[in-house]
Specification:
Rossmann fold, single chain, 13% strand, 11 helices, six-stranded parallel sheet, alpha/beta, Arc Repressor Mutant, subunit A, 2 domains, globular, 6 strands
Length: 217
């Protein structure tokens, strides 16, 4: 079993304490560090080498958005999961654009955070359902005047199926089980989809899938 090296970054000690109590009992999670300031966490990246960072957005010294951008610059392989009180599209889009692999409201059930951490550790993106819906509705409003036209830009039927599941937030493993193909085959389809569409993130795929009617708002 892979052990996930986890770092906690939140300026409220009571939150860090609660997260520690929740996560320390998980056999596949090792908390390698916890910090109340973003700069302290960034300074410790090279030494602690976390696989995943659970990051608050409202930090006193540096916003979680800027801190996430810096994490991805310093340690591209480290995934960031936002754990925040903010549930509006402004913060959601900014965190995803900064490179976050997950976004979980602090009101979410503990299992949601665990799922986000494990998903991020596998190199996938976790979209909390209500946040994904908010993103979709906001995007539809902003793009209501845009018409991408018909067609699927050269995507095969199988690639369209994979795209629909990717846009819904499924992992390669989950997609493979649903479609009866291996995760490696899913990964290959995903690479082809990205190449054909000229896209680089799941956020872009969600937008495309909604605009094409592959998934519903």
């Amino acid at each position: 079993m892979m052990t996930i090296r986890l770092m906690l970054v939140d300026d409220h000690e009571v939150v860090r304490s609660g997260l520690r109590m929740l996560l320390e009992g998980e056999p596949d999670v090792e908390i390698v560090g916890e910090f109340g300031l973003a700069k302290e966490a960034l300074d410790s990246l090279e030494r602690l080498k976390p696989d995943v960072i659970v990051m608050d957005i409202g930090l006193p010294d540096l916003s979680g958005i800027d801190a996430t951008s810096e994490v991805k610059r310093l340690s591209e392989g480290t995934a960031v999961v936002a754990l925040t009180i903010h549930e509006d599209e402004e913060y959601f889009f900014k965190m995803l654009d900064a490179g976050a692999s997950g976004y979980v409201p602090k009101r979410a059930a503990p299992d949601e955070l665990l799922t986000a951490i494990r998903t991020a550790a596998m190199g996938e993106v976790y979209l909390y359902p209500s946040m994904a819906k908010l993103l979709v509705k906001d995007y539809l409003t902003q793009e209501s005047q845009t018409n991408m036209g018909g067609g699927m830009d050269g995507l095969t039927d199988r690639e369209q199926e994979v795209l629909a599941h990717l846009a819904d937030g499924a992992t390669n493993l989950e997609i493979g089980e649903t479609l009866g193909i291996s995760p490696k085959t899913v990964a290959r389809h995903r690479e082809n989809i990205m190449r054909k569409l000229g896209m680089h993130s799941r956020t872009e795929l969600v937008k495309y899938a909604i605009r094409k009617g592959i998934i519903q708002a």
